[in-house]
Amino acid sequence: MSKTTPGLRSMAFGLVFLAAAHARSQAVWTGATPGRAAAPTAPYAPRPLLTGEVDPRAFGGEDDTITVISAGQFNAYFCVNLDPVTLSNECTCTGGCTEAFHHYASLDIPAGAVIDFVGVNNMTPADATMGFTLHFRDHLGGTAQLTSFSFPAHDGFVTDYAGPLGILVPGNLDRAFILDIERAPVQDVTTWFGYVEIWWHRVVSDPPATATFGDVPASHPFYQFVEALAASGVTAGCAGGNFCPDAPLTRGQMAVFLSKALGLHWAN
Length: 268
Hints:
The structure is a single chain. The chain is α+β, with helices and mostly antiparallel strands. It folds into two domains: 2-202, Jelly Rolls; 206-268, no CATH class. It has helices at 8-28, 223-231, 251-262, and strands at residues 2-4, 65-70, 75-76, 81-83, 88-92, 101-107, 113-123, 130-138, 143-150, 158-162, 167-169, 175-183, 190-202. The strands form two sheets. Strands 1, 2, 4, 5, 7, 10, 11 and 13 form an eight-stranded antiparallel beta sheet that branches. The radius of gyration is 23 Å and the shape is elongated.
């Protein structure tokens, strides 16, 4: 699910609404809030612990698009319990568990996007009992960690944010981006996570070294943007190998630009 934030005021209202809804759910929640527990030791919690609060809106994130992946969309070989009250994934390490548990989901965002923040809604009774990693995988099976962190202790559900990250998604051909929620094997400790938020924005591609149009050289202030329109097939220029950057735009030409740029299409 993706949504574009309408602005700080609307976001603030949404946060108030969600807080009120959460208070109502807590009032009828029959599960016990977990007690404090000791943090796990390495190698089960190698990820850096988030120690400060980050508000994406303080960095201009209110203009970002937010892609939300709920706990129900994650795959796991263990701890697949979805709590029907909080609609979050609940897991308790019992029976002498010795290995970390992983929950995986694919991340699908468009090419040219920059990931600014990652937020994980969670509740955990101890520092570093649960963590997050964003993985990259290529078509040859090579992998890399793009960002990784663990969560501080919470007595209730809180969304922890990491960022600004500035992770560019140059393209989606021959590559995949994978979300990984990891739980440390801490005996008799219950942890929850509800969803992951990916805050991202689009960027215009870097321009080529050689100009496409004779009247828009590399020194032109709009060079990058004109080249982006040409490379994406939105415009072929005016005539004679030129773009005519100072010419007025007719309503018909505007219709062509917008239709191509937005990919407007409806089946008959």
